[in-house]
Write a structure and sequence with these properties.
Elements lengths: L4 H5 L8 E7 L6 E7 L7 E6 L12 E6 L7 H15 L5 H13 L2 H15 L5 H9 L1 H8 L7 H7 L3 E16 L18 E16 L5
Antiparallel strand pairs: 1-2, 3-4, 5-6
Helix pairs in contact: 2-3, 2-4, 5-6
Pfam families: Annexin_2 (PF18411), ASTN1_2_fn3 (PF19743), ASTN_2_hairpin (PF18577)
InterPro entries: Annexin-like, ASTN1_2_Fn3, ASTN_2_hairpin, Astrotactin
Protein name: Astrotactin-2-like
Length: 220
């Protein structure tokens, strides 16, 4: 996807996931313009290509920015509850109904949650057989493989965090400034003024960002 800061973001024609903003720098006359991405996938690597066009329409050389997004957020209490539920379904004689319930449960949750469920299961019940072995034994190799393949795309870094002893959830409120140009311009026309001379209408907004905190000791 190609977006122009002036033609798309400042005019409000861009994606709802990408908005323009600004903030004032350390010096009185310094203004920093920003691009806020609200819909990037977690645990993913993005490459952004940046270029500028001057008032004569000349394009600069492209520069590249690589961004690795943060790991997916999981509810650790829910993951532990699901691990207990699956153990109880596997424990003892497993009927066809219980097998299907366990299979549906593990297939319905997101892959990061499944990864965390596996961690809790092995932490509490590995002495009765680890999660992989019990899943293969109770559900059969084919269904077990369908379940386990869902976590294959989790990065090594996020996998290590999802094996942390404790995970706490919180929601941060992040302020940002959403700006739109007050000037009407034909799409694709060349800007003959600098951004400092453009009349912008800006409003401060708040964005809720769920996060996880990871640790090897009990988190407060």
């Amino acid at each position: 996807e190609i977006l122009s800061f002036a033609d798309d973001l400042l005019t409000g024609l861009g994606s709802s996931c990408v908005v323009a903003g600004k903030r004032y720098g350390d010096h009185p006359n310094a203004i920093l313009y920003s691009v806020v991405f609200k819909c990037l996938e977690p645990d993913s690597l993005y490459k952004f290509t940046l270029s500028a066009i001057d008032s004569r329409g000349r394009r600069s050389e492209s520069s590249f920015v690589f961004v690795r997004t943060s790991c997916p957020v999981v509810d650790d209490n829910t993951a532990e509850e699901i691990a207990d539920k699956v153990y109880n379904l596997y424990n003892g004689y497993t009927s066809g109904k219980e097998q299907q319930t366990a299979y549906n449960t593990l297939m319905d949750i997101p892959p990061p949650m499944l990864y965390r469920v596996q961690h809790h299961y092995n932490s509490h019940y590995e002495r009765f057989g680890d999660f992989v072995w019990r899943s293969e034994d109770e559900l059969g190799p084919r269904k077990a493989h369908l379940i386990l393949r869902r976590v294959e795309n989790i990065s090594r870094y996020c996998g290590a965090l999802l094996r942390s002893t404790y995970i706490r959830s919180r929601t941060d409120t992040v302020p940002y400034v959403f700006c739109r140009s007050e000037e009407m311009r034909p799409p694709g026309s060349v800007w003959h003024s600098s951004l400092q001379e453009v009349h912008l209408s800006c409003v401060e907004k708040l964005m809720s960002v769920p996060r996880n905190t990871y640790g090897e000791s009990k988190l407060r």
